[in-house]
């Protein structure tokens, strides 16, 4: 491909290639040739296809098993990223997702190592979720709210422990049982069970 128009991209690219050492160009051609030979080998293509199918099958089995494990305990649900996502979606339908958001914010807060960041994060979480009339106020009693407020004066990774525990208990006793009975979760368990039955029938 050639072009004599000033500023032509093809011309610029050719000039750029011309400045490269011959050894670099030869190595690039050699690499391209080797890759082409490998990709045209039928056994390699078959192996790559089989590998991807196995990985996909493994993910499906894992996700099916995971969905069924959510009903074993609230802890099992919280350990699963997809479980937390599904639960959060359900809580939105009940307009109570702030409870889970607060719990997750507390989990992230505990991982903070910098004392400066710890204090600023603590104030931000308190103002968003805990203080009276907060934008996303969680349902905790006045005593727990005041204990948490006092904890902010010397913020540590444990300053939200009591408020987080109260919120977790509320979700476990109230929202979690309704989630398990919800149409969305029932559909997920049916799909997971049917995949399990289909898998056993093919073995």
Automatic annotation (TrEMBL):
One of its GO terms (cellular component) is membrane. It holds the Pfam family RGS. InterPro entries: RGS, RGS_sf, RGS_subdom1/3, RGS_subdomain_2. SMART domains: RGS. It is a lipid-anchor. Residues 73-189 form the RGS domain. This is Regulator of G-protein signaling 16. It comes from Chordeiles acutipennis.
